[in-house]
Each structure stands twice: as C-alpha cells, then as structure tokens.
Amino acid sequence: MGISERKERERQEMINLILDEAMKLFIEEGYENVTMRKIADRIEYSPTTIYLYFKDKTEIFSELLNIAFDKFYEAQMSVQYIEDAKEKLLAHGIAYVKFAVSNPNYYDLMFIMKDPTANMKCPDDWKTSTRTYDLLKKNIQECIENGYLEEVDIEVAAFTMWSHVHGIASIMIKRGFMIPEAFREYLIYNSIQYGFKGLFIK
Amino acid sequence: MGISERKERERQEMINLILDEAMKLFIEEGYENVTMRKIADRIEYSPTTIYLYFKDKTEIFSELLNIAFDKFYEAQMSVQYIEDAKEKLLAHGIAYVKFAVSNPNYYDLMFIMKDPTANMKCPDDWKTSTRTYDLLKKNIQECIENGYLEEVDIEVAAFTMWSHVHGIASIMIKRGFMIPEAFREYLIYNSIQYGFKGLFIK
Amino acid sequence: MGISERKERERQEMINLILDEAMKLFIEEGYENVTMRKIADRIEYSPTTIYLYFKDKTEIFSELLNIAFDKFYEAQMSVQYIEDAKEKLLAHGIAYVKFAVSNPNYYDLMFIMKDPTANMKCPDDWKTSTRTYDLLKKNIQECIENGYLEEVDIEVAAFTMWSHVHGIASIMIKRGFMIPEAFREYLIYNSIQYGFKGLFIK
Amino acid sequence: MGISERKERERQEMINLILDEAMKLFIEEGYENVTMRKIADRIEYSPTTIYLYFKDKTEIFSELLNIAFDKFYEAQMSVQYIEDAKEKLLAHGIAYVKFAVSNPNYYDLMFIMKDPTANMKCPDDWKTSTRTYDLLKKNIQECIENGYLEEVDIEVAAFTMWSHVHGIASIMIKRGFMIPEAFREYLIYNSIQYGFKGLFIK
DNA sequence: AATGAATGAGAGTTCATTCAT
DNA sequence: AATGAATGAACTCTCATTCAT
After folding, report:
1. Contact, D61 vs D108, CB < 8 A?
2. CA-nearest residue of chain A to B189?
3. Cα–Cα distance for residue pair A199/A33, rounded to 1 Å
C-alpha cells in the first residue's frame, strides 16, 4: 500500500514537474518555442520520458489550460463572500486583473494565446472556461436586483465589464513594460473605479 | 544620376513587393505560416533574393509592424473630422474596434503577439506606436474642456477607454468564435455605448 | 520436484502465450506492426516481462518461423494418405498453394521476407525448413517408379514444381490484388493442372 | 546555354547518384532500412539536400520502381527478335530469370517487396508494370497459332509460365544461398526446359 | 516473477540562412 | 542583381531495450 502510494505520488510529482517547466517555457519563450526537447532539458530527463506521462504535446497543453482555468476560477471565488452586490462586483473586477497580472503566464494561456481552445472539444472543458463568466453574470444580476445597475441586457453588461478588465489585463501583460512600474497599480485601480463607477446608478 | 535614382527606385519597388506579399501571407495565414520560401514563391523570386533587401526575417516583421501602426493611425484619423468632442470620442472607440476586427492580423501583430515588439528598440519606432494613444488623449482633453467628462486624470481616462476597446478587440479576435456571429456586432456597438455613456456627465 | 516441474510448466505456458499473441499480431497486422509493446498489451503483461522469456525480438521471430514451418509441414502431410502417386502429387501442389494463400503471413515469413532466415544458422533449423521439400522429392520418386513421370533428375523436377507453386503463392500473396478476386481460385487450380499435366507421361 | 545545360546535367547526375545509392541500400539492407539519413550518408550530402531533388521518400521509391520496370521490359524485349515462336517463348523464360538473378535488387523491388505498388496510382505507372506481361501473352498467342501449344485459356497459360519463372526467380534471390552455387545455373536452365517442354505439343 | 521508469537511437521532414557563382 | 545548391539545427514522435526494485 505504502509502496503504491509512494509510486503514485512520485508519478504525480513528475507530472507536475513537467507541467511546471512547460509552463515556464510558455511564459519565457512563447508558445511556438515550447518543444518537447526543451521541456526535457529543463526537467533533466530525456524527451522520451515525457511521453510516459503525456500522450503528446497537445495533452500537456490541454492540461496546462485546465490548471489555469481552475486557478482562475478560484481567484474569482475568493470575493464571493462579499455581501453588498456593488462592492462585490468591483472587487470582482479588481480580483480579475490582479490574478491576470500576478499570473501572466496563466492568463496568456487562457485568453491571449493563439488557439489553445482548439484542443478543447469535450463539453466538460467548455464548462471549465465559462464557469467564471457565469459568475460575473450572476453578480451583475444581483446588482440589477439591488438597484445598483439600470435594467440592461446582462450580456451587454457582462461583455462590457469583461472587455474592460480583459483589456487592462492584456495591456498590462503584453505592454506593461511601456508603463512606469510605479504607475501601473495606480492605473489599474483607478481605471476600474472610473469605468465601473459610471455604470452604477446608485 | 538618373541611373542611381532609377536603381534606388527599383530597389524600393522590390522592398515594397516583398513587404506586400509578406503582409498578405501574414494576413491570410497568420504569423507562423509566413516562411521565407512562401514569400519567395509569391514574389516569384528565389528565397535568397529576399536577403538582398532584408537582413533577416525579423527585419521584415519589424517593417510590417510599422506599416500596421500606420494603417491603424490612419483609421483613427478618419474620425477626427467630427466636430463634437463627445461624438468624436464615441466614434473613435467604434473605429478602433472596427479596425481591429476587420484587420485581426494587423491588430494581433501590433497588440497581441509576443515577439514583434522585441524588435522595436529605437525611439522612432516607439513614436509610431504611441501616436494613436496621443490622439485619444487629445480627444479626452477636448471632452473635458467641453464639459462632457468630469475633470479626471487624463491618463486614467485614456487607459480606461483603451482597455475597454482593446478588451473588446482581443476578445473578438481571439475568442470571437465562442460568440454567435449574429450577436457580435450587437455586442460591440452596445458595449461601447454602455461603457462610454457612463463616463459622460452631459 | 513437483515445484520445479510446475514452474517449468508455467514458464512454458507463458512462452506459448507470448508466441500465440505475437503470431496473431503478425498475422493480423504484418511484420513491421509487431512491436514489443503491442505484444505486451495483448498478453496483458509489461513489455519488460517478455524479456524474461525471450532474449530479444529476433528470438521471438525465430520461434515463430519454426512454428510456421511445422504448420506448413502438417498441411503437406495431410495429403500423404492418398495412394495414387500422381493424384497425390497434384494434391500436394494444390495443398501447398492453398496453405500459402490461406496463411499469407506464415508463407511470407517462411519464404518471402528477408530478415528472418538470417537468424537460422544452426542445422536444426535447416532440417525444419527442408523437411517439406524432402516430402516433395519422395512423391516425385514414387511417380517415377510408377511410370507417371519420365526418368528425370529429381532435383530438377522438384525444383520445377516447387518453383511453380511458390510462384503462384507469391504472386497471389503479393500481387493478388491485381487479379479480380473471382478469378483467383480459377487461375490457381487451372494453372496447377496445366503445368503438372504436361509433366506426366501417363 | 552551355551553363544551363551543364547545370541540368549536374542536376541529373545528382538525381542518379541519389537513386543509385538508395537502390544499393534497398539491396543491402532491405526496404525498412532505407532511411533518408542513410542515403544522405552514402552520397555524402546532408539529408536536407535530398529534398531538393525529391519531394519525399516515396518519390524516390516510385522512381526506383519505374527504373526497374523499364530495365525489366528492355531485358524482355531483347529476345523478341527470335522468329520461331517456341524458341522465343523459351528464351523469354530464360531471359526473365536471368534478369531477375542478375538484378536481384530490381526484381525484389518489383515483385517481392511489401507493397511498392501502393505508390503507383496513375494509370501510366500501371502500364509500365503490365507491359511485360502483355508481351508474354502475345508470345503465347503466337505459339498457339503456330500449333506449338494446345488451344488453352491464355490467361491460364500466361499465369502458369509467369508463376514458374517468378518462382524460380524468387527462390534464387531469397533462398539461393541454400543451393550450391555451381548447381544454380543448371537448375534454372533445366527447370525451364523441363517445365515448358511439357506444355508444348509439337 | 514482474514491472515502472527511463533512455539512446533514430525515423521523416521543415526552416532560416549562407555561399559560390 | 539574382540564384541554385547546400546545410545545420530543429521539430514531434516511436522503437527495442535496460536497470533498479
């Protein structure tokens, strides 16, 4: 028992090692520079070894994507405890950007890169990726019910807010270096305040 | 004199030919499908010839980037004739997204892709890419002066609006397929209306 | 004693299991599709286990070859009961081709493929493969004694008949698809009749 | 003119060099051991270079096959000058086997190996490979007309003769080493005599 | 007795690039 | 000015095999 448990643990560690290094490579060198050989070099195993843990390159990629979406969802959940719908919505936006900026690699993978979703074909995967958007819509609904937002097409409102935070996130990730570091947090926070504030009617 | 002039002109024509076909290729097939051989095939010269006009592949891409920024700037300029600052600002946003959605590969090159900006190091290039942002700030300034927008940190306002339209643009380009086609234009237009409207105070 | 006997028996069973599945694989998918991993999958053991029973892949193939020769010999024996030498010889030829056509992969292994015989170097293996040829010569000898065939160099006669049936067999196996299916059996039967008939003098 | 001619000649020489070495490899190491890299090693060029002259591996293979069929056809044609139909048919058979034995590599490629014909899809290629068989049938027809052979289904007669010589050829090529060298020619010649003689009625 | 883990060698192919002409 | 010829490096992936346990 102890043995098989240890083996399983070791296997999981190896899988994580591969995923970690693959992710780092994604970050550092971009998608098309992640090769099986480079991953192998990083983990200090032979390329063949990787195939013991993953069917092929797309499986690694697919797994990375799932992990990213999970982490992302969790980050969004962390503000759901807030009672006041308006405050919650604002916190939601800030949490979104914060996650993106703190995990630019994950964010890049999920929302910026080429077409990772090409690998996602089973409906389960789709759920993973829309879960967070549903959360946002629920928040907006609550705000409408509480009179914070005017009666508006929820799809439009959700899309607007998503666009805004996604815009902030991608700019920060891809062009952040163009903005003085000291200025970045200020911009993020105030932009969200400014943009959202206008939408609230009380 | 006449001779060297003609030679220079011919040289420029060749450069343009290469850039044109490279761009078409890039637009039609995306970044990773632009290979030196394919460009050569299109211009009906040998791959080697390209190297007589460009140091290497990145130089071509660098040039393409400049062209993209120019086109982008022009697109933005096309609404500058509008007199009313508020209307102009709205039109600005819509033009921005329209350009991005109609020229997804330009937009991708300019604002989404990883590598290309790595090539931009000389200050001249920077100007090219911030020109449009300056235009936006000028528009906002006008709006403030006309009492359409409250007195706000222009950097915050500009960043907010840019984030919003950039967000819309990238979502449409990268994840547009997740949104029913008939719905896309509706979303774009109404999202801009909804988001910007909140910012105006009159 | 009982223990070591059982162990030996179990060992033999394992060997047979491996050979059986390897043969099935070979028959179903052909030589180059027999991989150690596929054999392992079939026997539901790990690839490594196979190496406890066979030195390497060629040893398995060598064994398979012997089995094929045995089966082949048996098929030939099945007509030896026929009394009349002439009829027996004809039946022999037909049985030969029938076996080949019904077991194309065996036949391929024994008489067409390149490598396998490279492994056969010990005289024992040679016997296995010439046994059938000896049978043919005996049949011819009988025919001569019975006045069916003229007095001829038995080596020449045997070689001639073998060539003929081997020729039919290999054509059918390797190029059979070029011949309309309905036509194949007709060709085989009539060709043997036609070719052999000429050799008989009564 | 002289230049382009020389270039063309050099190109052709390179193509021939590649085909020659590829053919030798086929002979020496068998089909599955012919790799692009090995060919490259032999011709002392890089693997990439081969792709300048051939689209891919199958194109090399296809070319080899055509060359073989051409040579083969020529060899058969060399006896067509013989006037007497019977003598011609005998000579035909002997020429067939002689070609096969003298060019075992070609013969292997055409009639023994796996499925080279898989590459042949255009009708032209098929003609190349059946041309020789048509020649045989014409010879048989002549023999019938001249009363040398009884009125028989030409398909059966042709198939019988082809089987016989093909059988001899393949045995000699694949199992020739089992027959004492001094004995081989004797066997070939006498077997053809013995087998064909029976078929003639005058 | 059995195996999970690991690997070196090698497969076909494509790419940007250089060099001699 | 233009190019044909050539290449090294790299790609993903599969195979038979070994070794420690």
Report:
1. no
2. A156
3. 42
CATH superfamily of B62-197: Tetracycline Repressor, domain 2 (1.10.357.10)
Q: How sure is the predictor about C117, in pLDDT bands with cuts at 50, 70 and 90?
A: very low
Q: Do C152 and D194 make contact, defined as CB atoms within 8 angstroms?
A: yes
- Distance measured from the CA of protein residue A25 to the C1' of nucleotide F21, in angstroms: 34
CA–CA separation, C160 vs D123, rounded Å? Answer: 35
Q: Three-class SS string for A72-118?
A: HHHHHHCCCCCCCHHHHHHHHHHHHHHHHHHCHHHHHHHHHCCCHHH
Chains that contact B by 3+ CB pairs under 8 Å? Answer: A
Q: Confirm if A18 and A50 have CB atoms less than 8 A apart.
A: yes
Q: Residue C123 has what pLDDT?
A: 45
CB of C69 closer than 8 Å to CB of C120: no
Residues of chain B scoring pLDDT < 50 = 116-117, 119-121, 123
Q: What is the pLDDT of residue D68?
A: 87
User: Using CB atoms, which residue from A156, A168, A198 is nearest to B191?
Assistant: A156
Judge whether C199 is closer than 8 Å to chain D, CB to CB: yes
Which residues does nucleic strand E approach, with CB less than 7 A? A 7, 10-11, 14, 45-49, 51-52; B 34-37, 47-48, 51, 56-58; C 7, 14, 45-49, 51-52; D 33-38, 47-48, 51, 56-58
What are A197's two structure tokens?
A: 């504030």
The answer to whether the beta carbons of residues A62 and A79 sit under 8 Å apart is no
A113 contacts on B by Cβ (under 8 Å): 174
Whole-number pLDDT of residue C116: 47
Q: Are B181 and B101 in contact (CB under 8 A)?
A: no
Cα A73 off chain centre by: 8
In Å, how far is D165's CA from the nearest CA of chain C?
A: 7
Closest by Cα among A198, D76, D86, C140 to B149? A198
CA atom of A15 to C1′ atom of E1, Å: 29
Q: According to the CATH classification, is domain D1-54 in 1.10.10.60?
A: yes
User: Where in chain B are the domains?
Assistant: 1-54, 62-197
Q: In whole angstroms, what is the distance from residue A67 CA to residue A58 CA?
A: 14
Model pLDDT for residues A138-176, shown as the tens digit of each residue = 999 999 999 999 999 999 999 999 999 999 999 998 888
Q: Is the pLDDT of residue D191 over 70?
A: yes
Residue A121: pLDDT above 60?
A: no
